[in-house]
Design a protein that fits this description.
The complex is a heterodimer.
Chain A lengths: L14 H4 L12 H8 L9 H5 L6 H9 L3 H9 L5 H7 L6 H4 L2 H4 L5 H15 L13 E5 L3 H12 L3 E5 L8 H4 L8 H13 L3 E3 L10 H6 L4 E4 L5 E2 L12 E3 H10 L17 E5 L3 H12 L4 E6 L10 H10 L2 E4 L1 E8 L5 E14 L5 E5 L5 E4 L2 E4 L3 E2 L2 H4 L27 E3 L2 H4 L4 H20 L2
Parallel strand pairs in A: 1-2, 1-4, 2-3, 4-16, 6-14, 7-8, 7-14, 8-9
Antiparallel strand pairs in A: 5-15, 10-11, 11-12, 11-13
Helix pairs in contact in A: 2-4, 2-9, 4-5, 4-9, 5-9, 6-9, 10-19, 14-15, 15-16
Chain B lengths: L3 E8 L2 E7 L1 H6 L5 E5 L7 E9 L4 E7 L3 H7 L9 E6 L10 E7 L3 H13 L3 E8 L8 H6 L3 E6 L6 E2 L2 H10 L6 E5 L2 H11 L5 E5 L15 E4 L2 E4 H4 L2 E3 L5 H8 L3 H17 L3
Parallel strand pairs in B: 7-8, 7-11, 8-9, 9-10, 11-12
Antiparallel strand pairs in B: 1-2, 2-5, 3-4, 3-6, 4-5, 12-15, 13-14
The structure holds flavin-adenine dinucleotide and FE2/S2 (inorganic) cluster.
Chain lengths: 462, 280
């Protein structure tokens, strides 16, 4: 019989304390709460939640295992569909995916599927002993470009089939956005590295410091014995606003700001040599996960006032609900319906303020969201010394412009067959943010999986 | 991986390192750079390539101690290795036959000029190299530059060797004797590149400079390296590092280069204190 208890809150570090450290904010369910929460699931015959999951995790089945106290089995059920559950349990936008479909959500609150996924995955990491048995080698070689969630998932799936897989990563560590973008306090890097180590145990070779397009190219890989290539290079090109003052000192792209802090560990400066600087007042431009991460990082680096400056209203913010909520608890100030028109500097070229306009919402635009319209005469100056631009990222052209014959969309993203993720070059597949534009971890993983299935089929014909 | 096969002290605080990096060496071209990270807690720092040897599988870099990270690298010995060594990065020099070209290098900037001069010479240009240093004992790579140039002109700030003055005086001297110059490459401190560009602009001589701003990834991912070139924002690591010197906003580049000055001084001073304590 399903329990009628209300949805269980996630235990979190105290908001005041955590705004000063980089430790993980959400602490995870203790066992007894996880079991209680799992008992809320009514085990629908036709589970809608599974339809909401981009990779089709068998949600009622794994929750049932948790309810019965079989935590390792729960993790194994998840892993049949999702190879990185400790990560997805932490960063997936569950409220618009699986949990949005949960029947309990119609009248009350949905089952906390994401938190249960995280619980099972963490339990397995701590207690699991499942060893991967290597399949017989097929003798086929596949090159994966980019070690983000798309590339890593594709690599895992192909290794499972017995193909020899080599991942080429431009940075000095694998993980993509999971390592350089998403902060430690939301996704501990040790967890990402554990997941990556289990890939290595499967026999996946990961070569870091390899910028494809420079040190080698897609065509060279094909000529040098790789039977197929998967491109998962992400959306790594930061957009700027193109307003005056954007090259002043103190203006960072979110990518730079987060890379300094996360990948280079500037939050540990001077133990780590890479510096980062924030003023007392910091403005972060944008309303997505990237903006929330940058704002909360700025706070932890010592800023007094951190503003999210966003052109639309709270309702339109694309960030995960939990992140907005956490940001508010920590004291991030939301300046919504506001947009900068100019960044002002002092005589040394350092940012001293940002001139903004206030907006109101008009008719819905092409995206279905109400279009923000500037209010005349609403100009005002916001004193800030640091500005972080988090308004989105485009496709990095390093691979796409050096691969002859690779068809692109107008946006510069790679054009693929939507079903198979095949590109215009035989044997070359692509997926994740480089195809879709900046999206989500789980969609990138889903693409990695789809591409792996197609590559597997393709290799049978070779 | 990435171990140092040869180390040569070129001048006080300037060191040449030949590093094992076969994949990079196979692809390197004049004008490109690498990003290195010495150890786990180090910064990623960009260094322009001084030489490359695809047969031996090595890349040669020249580095001057100007702060903490460079101090650590100049102290590395043969057999030591870099943790990370990425490249080749950036757009290569547009090597073609221009006619007569000047290759101007100031201080440690002479190093990246070397492969460019060689490339231009191989392409059939008359290469006149102008090498500047504060004084004779700080002048590096004279012999190597003579080997790839038709002529070498030396300038020193204190007059201890060659023409007394700046590289612009060297350029002036070459022009004064009636040499018709078709293009100039100028690499060195920002102030030097700025004065060369200012000098050649009214003369209408094509002038290429190589910018070395603060970088993080070196692949176009972060925008730390942005510059204003002709009113447009460019990323030095992927659009450059070479740009039309007549279009670069050098004043902005100078301000941006100074952004982390206090932080850099802090780690450098800590390091020097530590060294003093350990008697190094
Ligand atoms: C700060 C931030 C927070 C986010 N928060 C969330 C969240 O909470 N939930 C969520 O679902 N999504 C979130 N996202 C989005 C999510 O991280 C991405 O959609 C996802 O990582 C895309 O995966 P990917 O594998 O396509 O690309 P990436 O993760 O970008 O990985 C691409 C990899 O390819 C490498 N690469 C690029 N070019 C080359 C080359 N030429 N040669 C070799 N390697 C190359 C890159 O270095 C990188 O490692 C966030 C993104 C950011 C930036
Ligand atoms: S160094 Fe990051 S974009 Fe150039």
């Amino acid at each position: 019989m399903a329990s009628k208890a209300p949805r269980h809150e996630m235990p979190c570090q105290d908001a005041v304390a955590r705004a000063k450290n980089f430790n993980e904010v959400a602490l995870g369910y203790p066992q007894e709460i996880a079991v209680e929460e799992a008992k809320r699931c009514i085990q629908c015959k036709k589970p809608k939640c599974v339809e909401g999951c981009p990779v089709g995790v068998e949600i009622p089945q794994f929750i049932k295992q948790i309810a019965e106290g079989n935590f390792l089995e729960a993790a194994q059920v998840i892993k049949r569909k999702n190879s990185l559950p400790a990560i997805c349990g932490r960063v997936c936008p569950q409220e618009t995916q699986c949990e949005a479909q949960c029947i309990l959500g119609v009248k009350g609150e949905p089952v906390a599927i994401g938190r249960l996924e995280r619980f099972a995955a963490d339990y397995e990491m701590a207690h699991g002993t499942t060893k991967f048995t290597k399949p017989a080698p097929t003798g086929k070689k596949v090159a994966i470009i980019g070690a983000g969630p798309a590339g890593l998932t594709c690599a895992a799936e192909l290794a499972r089939e017995g193909h020899a897989v080599t991942v080429f990563e431009a940075l000095h560590v694998a993980g993509g956005v999971l390592m350089y973008g998403i902060p430690e306090f939301r996704l501990p890097k040790a967890i990402v590295q554990k997941e990556i180590n289990s890939l290595k145990d499967m026999g996946v070779e990961i070569l870091v410091n390899q910028v494809v397009g420079k040190v080698t190219s897609v065509h060279e890989l094909l000529e040098n014995g790789y039977d197929a290539v998967f491109i998962g290079t992400g959306a790594g090109l930061p957009y700027f606003m193109n307003i005056p003052g954007e090259n002043l000192n103190g203006v960072y792209s979110a990518n730079e700001f987060l890379t300094r802090s996360n990948l280079m560990k500037a939050y540990n400066f001077p133990q780590y040599a890479t510096p980062i600087k924030v003023g007392e007042q910091v403005a972060v431009l944008g309303g997505g996960n990237v903006a929330m991460d940058a704002a909360r990082t700025a706070l932890r680096l010592g800023a007094k006032d951190v503003y999210i400056v966003y052109r639309r209203s709270m309702k339109e913010m694309p960030a995960r609900v939990e992140e907005v909520h956490h940001a508010q608890e920590e004291g991030i100030q939301f300046k919504i319906l506001t947009n900068p028109i100019r960044i002002n500097g002092d005589e040394n070229g350092n940012v001293k303020s940002m001139t903004c306009l206030k907006y109101e919402l008009g008719e819905p635009d092409a995206s279905g969201r109400r279009r923000p319209i500037p209010i005349e005469g609403s100009e005002f100056d916001l004193p800030v010394q640091t500005v972080v631009v988090a308004i989105g990222q485009g496709p990095n052209p390093l691979v796409t412009t050096t691969t002859e014959g690779l068809a692109l969309k107008k946006s510069g993203n790679i054009l693929v067959d939507e079903k198979t993720l095949a590109t215009s070059i035989p044997g070359v597949y692509a997926g994740g943010d480089i195809v879709t534009g900046a999206a989500t971890v789980i969609l990138a993983m889903g693409a990695g999986k789809t591409a792996a299935a197609s590559i597997n089929e393709y290799l049978k014909t070779k | 991986m990435y171990s140092i096969v040869k180390r040569r002290q070129l001048a006080e605080s300037i060191v040449l390192l030949e590093v094992q990096a076969p994949a990079v060496a196979k692809k390197a071209k004049p004008g490109e750079f690498v990003i290195v990270r010495q150890k786990e807690d180090s910064e990623r720092i960009p260094l322009t390539i001084m030489d490359f040897n695809p047969e031996k599988g090595t890349i040669t870099i020249v580095i001057q101690e100007v702060g903490y990270s460079s101090a650590l690298i100049t102290r590395m010995q043969e057999g030591d290795a870099f943790l990370d060594f990425v490249g080749p990065l950036g757009q290569p020099t547009e090597i073609e036959k221009y006619g007569t070209v000047l290759c101007v290098g100031g201080g440690v900037g002479i190093a990246p000029v070397h492969p460019i001069a060689r490339g231009l010479k191989e392409a059939g240009n008359k290469v006149i190299s102008i090498l500047g240093a504060r004084s004779k004992d700080l002048l590096i790579l004279e012999e190597e530059m003579r080997a790839v140039s038709d002529e070498v002109v030396i300038t020193t700030d204190d007059g201890s060797y060659g023409i007394k003055g700046f590289v612009t005086h060297g350029i002036q001297a070459v022009l004064d004797r009636g040499e018709k110059v078709d293009a100039i490459w100028a690499i060195g401190p920002i102030v030097m590149m700025k004065s060369v560009a200012n000098f050649t602009k009214p003369l209408g001589i094509k002038t290429i400079v190589s910018m070395n701003p603060i970088m993080v990834d070196g692949t176009g991912m972060c925008g730390a390296c942005r510059l204003d070139v002709g009113g447009e924002t460019k990323f030095a690591c992927v659009d450059g590092p070479e740009f039309d010197g007549h279009k670069v906003n050098f004043d902005l580049a100078m301000k941006r280069a100074a952004f982390f000055r206090n932080e850099e001084a802090l780690v450098y001073n800590n390091f020097k204190c530590q060294c003093a304590k350990e008697g190094k």
